């Protein structure tokens, strides 16, 4: 039995207009520079251009939905993190988005790389990534994945359970190798978007709890192992974080743990990883810090906590994913239907349906993530209308952009571009409703290259081994 209600009374809060943070634009054609990759501009024709490539032209050649990655922007963000955090190691979190080509860019820009499955590891290695600069994550790495990581000679494995430590020791003995290991700890901080909670957030699958002593047990266990080189400890407190308060609490608790480990064993572990999670601007309500500001704050935090515990400053690393690839990507869709819906109080919301949706970007449905959108094929002199951009899937929650002002004459055939779509969209894509996954194209210097081709229905049906009864009509 589902919960039912009279729509009017419960949904009255959406009546008049969009959310408070969303201002009615004075010029609905104007691009908010904070949301778009650095080479995006509107041409005199009204079309969007990125990397010197016309978005309308590209969509005409490759169809939509289409993901476009601005290579220069990606590389610039990678370099900005590398330079701001000079002396530390910056690991690009491959799970945000990785292909062989992207792994190559990360390698060329001098960053390290995080992977968390065999698939990501193989992509990185085939992209020419130096295994010594790769970190391997995951709370349930298979024996096969660990074996592959050890054989490849990855720089470090971030262990997440005692079972995994057993497996690593066994594999090291078999292979006659040693493993370089960090212990993933749970510092009891969870950060999300604009707030963090520094209480007991221990009830989750990742890491060893500092609070209940499990982290120390795992560290001592690794330290005592004849085949493991324990480098240090690792914490990752969340995603889309805008202030460094959560990192401060994490650094305090991890430095305290390193100090307690020294007391217990006489050994100073040399390394600390503070994870990723640096926020980006998806909408005008987000104001992320530049890497330089983040670096200054995080260095200060680590140095202060080290001093407080009379410990040497550890060799520190961070793991940005979203902050490098997110703003570099945009998604392009074609409008299929436009449907005004009356809200309480006389307001209207226009439902704009596009040819993609939750299968290529699950984030709004998965955790109410917010996005923005603009017309990509033309400008309009019409007034802004409050719109909701929805996908083509058979789910009411198949929303791409919950609230956005688009020109009132938005119509079937228009192209919509969604900025900040480079991270956790195509990489999380599914085939729900048997919808093939969109391609990803890199643009740079007026050239474009396909990183991932469009999936086809033949690709999908190749997995379906059932009988072929009929042919195409
Ligand atoms: C997901 C993840 C990251 C990257 O997070 P972003 O929000 O993309 O910066 C870094 N480290 C670990 C361990 C992760 O799980």
From TrEMBL:
Signal peptide: none annotated. The active site is at residue 394. InterPro entries: Ala_racemase/Decarboxylase_C (IPR009006), DAP_deCOOHase_LysA (IPR002986), De-COase2_CS (IPR022657), De-COase2_N (IPR022644), De-COase2_pyr-phos_BS (IPR022653), Orn/DAP/Arg_de-COase (IPR000183), PLP-binding_barrel (IPR029066). GO terms for biological process: lysine biosynthetic process via diaminopimelate. It comes from the Bacteria. It catalyses: meso-2,6-diaminopimelate + H(+) = L-lysine + CO2. The keyword Magnesium does not apply. Substrate binds at residues 322, 363, 367, 395, 424. Gene3D superfamilies: Alanine racemase, Lyase, Ornithine Decarboxylase, Chain A, domain 1. Pathway: Amino-acid biosynthesis; L-lysine biosynthesis via DAP pathway; L-lysine from DL-2,6-diaminopimelate: step 1/1. One of its GO terms (molecular function) is pyridoxal phosphate binding. Its cofactor is pyridoxal 5'-phosphate. The modification N6-(pyridoxal phosphate)lysine is found at residue 95. Residues 72-325 form the Orn/DAP/Arg decarboxylase 2 N-terminal domain. Pyridoxal 5'-phosphate binds at residues 277, 319-322, 424. Keywords: Amino-acid biosynthesis, Decarboxylase, Lyase, Lysine biosynthesis, Pyridoxal phosphate. It holds the Pfam family Orn_Arg_deC_N. Its EC number is 4.1.1.20. Homodimer. Specifically catalyzes the decarboxylation of meso-diaminopimelate (meso-DAP) to L-lysine. NCBIfam families: lysA. Belongs to the Orn/Lys/Arg decarboxylase class-II family. LysA subfamily. This is Diaminopimelate decarboxylase.
